[in-house]
Design brief:
CATH topology of the largest domain in chain A: Rossmann fold
Strand content of chain A: 15-25%
Structural class of chain A: alpha/beta
Oligomer: heterodimer
Shape of chain A: globular
Largest sheet of chain A: 6 strands, mixed, barrel
Number of helices of chain B: 7
Largest interface: A-B, 74 and 61 residues
CATH class of the largest domain in chain B: Alpha Beta
Number of strands of chain A: 21
Structural class of chain B: alpha+beta
CATH architecture of the largest domain in chain A: 3-Layer(aba) Sandwich
Number of helices of chain A: 20
Number of strands of chain B: 12
Largest sheet of chain B: 5 strands, mixed
Helix content of chain B: 10-25%
Distance between the termini of chain B: 53 Å
Number of domains of chain A: 3
Number of domains of chain B: 2
Radius of gyration of chain B: 21 Å
Helix content of chain A: 25-40%
Order of helices and strands of chain B: EEHEEEHHEHEEHEHEEEH
Mean pLDDT of chain B: 92
Chain lengths: ~550, ~300
């Protein structure tokens, strides 16, 4: 946000907030230990609002659940902004001192009346107004989100719509007030921080505009760095389509199963001239590869660091001997470099980290001994006397314009529904998410078993189940404009008529991503996993009753 | 101000009190237990844990407070200016001895931390004086909570019963349960807020129970294992540990503990991997790390097995 790609708050702030808004996130199941902090906040008296199309287990804790229609987030956020403005609840002192582009924002949200928002989002006007007033009037408010905001074709606009609300009310840059994007994987934050983004060098230094940084990296590495942004994953897939990208080296990812529109992913990955996959398992993607490099599990068979959703860099450590033949990721990469003609030696994880610290100013103060002693440090941490940064952008509150620095701009955004539109042929909206004991495509979570594990099922509202004449466990064919799958159905009273839900956890049983649309957000490259138009057809005759038995027994 | 945590709480005064004749200064809001520990007085506790709200049930931490008719639990009694406290008086010693004797005569304490047997010798606890332990009741949990069985005349009544093995993650062996409530607190408002278990029944018939005493797989349990993380007696145990103990292969002296970060979502929970013979046998989290406070979810606690898969 405002130049740094990380959440502005610490988890502990949720415990001391007056209002917590969870938007497009089922943290109770997807980020359970963050939700413990939220629960402590609730016990300390915080008001809790959950914005989600499903009445999730998180929403069950809310003072108010705003069950918006899938993809109507911007309409809702703009209406909240308009209500705050019309009710005279704007934090004018903050807005005039620390932000820019306020007038354009006011103009942009003016059409989003409560009545229009109720019509388009299906959230009662009264509820929208209540959230707007509570958020604006809170002393300290946390606005948190997850993939319900970012897995849309207009993901970046969705995020801007939320940032605008924080700017309007001054809920950023203070202890207790902030913006909290919860990361889905243990080092998504760290990957971006370390420069695994097409346009950034490590430490969010722009590869195109930050000449100083580029020069520093060129000097240290002794190679020229291309002064243009590269491709993100969605652009890479398009380049594969054009046969411009013919070779891929994939580390620790299973895109064949995790990408939207599986049929297309299979065709493109299968059509590469040369595919190298480095992973701890022979994943479905690895099965397509010419070369598979067996890696080690970075969290327990290797040394290193990962970075969490509160920008906290923490050490991962080697607890187990890796299986025979598996090699540390750093070792594999250096060996590849050597065979390509560059000798990087045999650096340890700590040596790689210390080089990073010399190049990324926001990590400079994070030595291994300090990370060890302090249980991790939150960036920016600029030198070894810097305690790290529990929250970001405190500068926006400085009286002195010099210390305050550049203004944070409002970014007006326009509501736009999902691309995969509903019609008579595809009348039901399918959205996706996680369940408590499972994770992504199941590569990790399929190896243990609990009594709460359920195989994949298309969840439908009780009304739709009745309308289609279905019973729990009945088998249906689920079709989208891309493809179709067969799945058992299950009633979920947390869904409204016309809304369906599935996970991606059991691709061997139900390949949910055969249905999803790979339309992606132009800035982030994230695909629209959350909004697929489907049709549900009962399959006759009735399937065997064991369709709902656990899919995998443990060995 | 960027980067520095703002103190929201009011500054705290220092209070002065006397413990065992010594003057002790502690910040307002401290407990007598914290005051005792601050001056190095070893005070036994069973139901107390830093990351839980004290429930004052085990009574093994009691101290004598001048002016108080009854002994007071050190774990929850707040220090006040001018208090005069004895942590080792005759009354305190007798009370701690009796509590430990009652527990040790009726419950299998063999897997408790070694401090427990040290306290037993310090206070001269002799559980055998109640007679030899009775075999217990295989159907103990079948009796309706509130129903009392006749008191035994010859032996010491026990809570002995077979362990409950009803899922793939953890085992409940209530013959080791001292009813300290820690699991109930961790499952409830202190951490997980799932409320799958509570204490049912009264007196010697009291036990930890799911709602309507259903089996764990039919209960509200979400298998976070935070109850195992706080259990002081081994009544709640990883299935891996249970099976290794049964097979006689559990060997703490061959185990190492390595702290790392959970491989699942982006919250960044600290995991302590307990490893024996290159296998993870148990997962805990440090009580003093402010991300987890020692608590994990089902994936962090039990989701490690993929790394040991050799398929």
């Amino acid at each position: 946000m405002f130049g740094a790609g990380g959440g502005t708050s610490s988890y502990l702030e949720a415990e001391e907030a007056d209002v917590i808004v969870l938007w497009g996130s089922n943290a109770r199941e997807a980020h359970p230990i963050y939700f413990h902090h939220v629960l402590r906040g609730l016990r300390n008296g915080a008001k809790f609002y959950v914005v989600d199309p499903r009445r999730t287990t998180s929403a069950q804790w809310a003072d108010l659940w705003l069950g918006l229609d899938v993809g109507s987030d911007i309409c809702l956020a703009n209406a909240i902004g308009r209500e705050i403005i019309h009710a005279g609840l704007v934090n004018h002192e903050f807005v005039s001192r620390a932000t820019a582009n306020f007038d354009a924002y006011v103009e942009a949200v003016e059409p989003y009346t409560l009545e229009r928002a109720e019509r388009e989002t299906l959230v009662p006007a009264q509820a929208i107004s209540e959230l707007a007033h509570a958020y604006a009037q809170a002393d300290r408010a946390q606005l948190c989100w997850t993939l319900g905001i970012t897995e849309h074709h207009n993901a970046t606009d969705n995020v801007f719509a939320l940032i605008n609300l924080a700017l309007l009310t001054g809920h950023v840059g203070r202890w207790g007030s902030g913006l909290v994007p919860l990361r889905g994987q243990n080092n998504v934050q760290g990957g971006g921080d370390m420069g695994a983004l097409p346009n950034k060098l490590p430490g969010f230094q722009d590869v195109v505009t930050n000449l100083d940084a580029r020069e520093r990296f060129e000097r240290t590495w002794g190679v020229p760095i291309p002064a243009q942004a590269g491709w993100h994953l969605s652009l890479m897939f398009e380049a594969m389509e054009r046969k411009e990208l013919t070779t891929a080296y994939i580390l620790g990812e299973n895109p064949l199963r995790s990408e939207a529109d599986t049929d297309r992913a299979e065709r493109l990955l299968g059509g590469l001239e040369h595919l190298v996959v480095q992973d701890i398992f022979l994943t479905d993607t690895a099965r397509l590869a010419e070369v598979v490099l067996p890696g080690t599990a970075s969290w327990c068979e290797a040394e290193g660091t990962v970075t969490s959703s509160e920008r906290r860099v923490q050490r991962v450590r080697r607890a187990l001997e890796p299986p025979e033949g598996a090699r540390d990721d750093i070792e594999i990469i250096c060996e590849l470099a050597r065979r390509l003609g560059t000798d990087w030696g045999h650096p340890t994880a700590q040596e790689v980290w210390d080089e990073l610290r010399s190049l990324s100013p926001i990590h400079a103060g994070m030595s291994y001994p300090r990370l060890e002693q302090l249980g991790g440090l939150q960036w920016p941490c600029r030198d070894e006397s810097d305690p790290g940064s529990p929250f970001l952008h405190g500068r926006l509150w400085e009286e002195d314009p010099e210390l305050r620095g550049p203004a944070a701009p409002f970014t007006p955004v326009v509501a736009e529904g999902p691309l995969d539109s509903l019609n008579e042929e595809y009348p039901i909206r399918l959205t996706t998410g996680r369940r408590l004991d499972s994770f992504n495509t199941g590569v990790q979570s399929s190896h243990y078993q609990t009594p709460i594990r359920r195989p994949e099922a298309l969840n439908l509202s009780p009304e739709d189940m009745a309308r289609l004449g279905l019973q729990d466990g009945d088998l249906v064919r689920v079709a989208s404009r891309r493809g179709s799958v067969r799945a058992p159905v299950q009633t979920d009273a947390g869904l409204r008529p016309g809304l369906a839900f599935m996970t991606l956890h059991f691709p061997e049983q139900v390949a949910t991503n055969r249905l999803t649309l790979d339309a992606w957000d132009p800035l982030s490259g994230t695909a629209e996993f959350k909004a697929t138009a489907i049709r549900v057809e009962p399959v006759s005759p009735a399937p065997p009753l064991d369709a709902l038995q656990p899919v995998r027994s443990t060995s | 101000m960027n980067g520095h945590r703002v103190a929201l709480a009011a500054p705290r005064r220092l209070l002065t009190l006397t413990i065992d004749g010594r003057e002790v200064k502690v910040p307002e809001g401290s407990t007598l237990l914290q005051a005792c520990r601050q001056v190095g007085i070893d005070t036994p506790t069973l139901c107390y844990l830093e990351n839980l709200t004290p429930v004052n049930v085990c009574r093994v931490c009691v101290v004598e407070l001048e002016g108080s008719r009854t002994l007071v639990p050190a774990c929850s009694r707040k220090a006040e200016n001018g208090m005069v406290v004895s942590s080792d008086s005759e009354r305190v010693r007798a009370s701690r001895k009796l509590v430990l004797e009652f527990l040790a005569s009726s419950v299998d304490l063999s897997l408790c931390a070694p401090e427990v047997s040290a306290w037993m010798s310090r206070y001269g606890a002799d559980p055998a004086r109640f007679g030899s332990p009775e075999p217990g009741n295989v159907d103990r949990d079948r009796t309706r909570p509130g129903e009392h069985s006749p008191v035994s005349q010859d032996g010491a009544a026990t809570v002995a019963q077979p362990p409950k093995l009803d899922n793939d993650t953890y085992v409940r062996d209530y013959s080791r349960c001292i009813l300290c409530y820690k699991c109930v607190e961790a499952c409830g408002s202190d951490a997980q807020n799932t409320f799958a278990i509570a204490v049912a029944g009264r007196g010697f018939e009291a036990r930890i129970s799911t709602e309507f005493d259903v089996g764990l797989p039919d209960s509200a349990c979400v298998y976070c294992g935070n109850c195992i993380g706080v259990c002081p007696t081994g009544a709640l145990m990883f299935k891996s540990e249970f099976e290794m103990r049964q097979a006689g292969t559990w060997a703490p002296e061959r185990q190492s503990v390595t702290t790392t970060i959970c491989p699942y979502c982006g919250v960044g929970c600290n995991l302590e991997l307990h490893v024996q013979d290159n296998s993870i046998v148990k997962v805990t989290s440090p009580l003093d790390h402010d991300v987890t406070l020692g608590h994990l979810c089902v994936k962090g606690r039990f989701g490690y097995r993929f790394v040991q898969s050799r398929e």
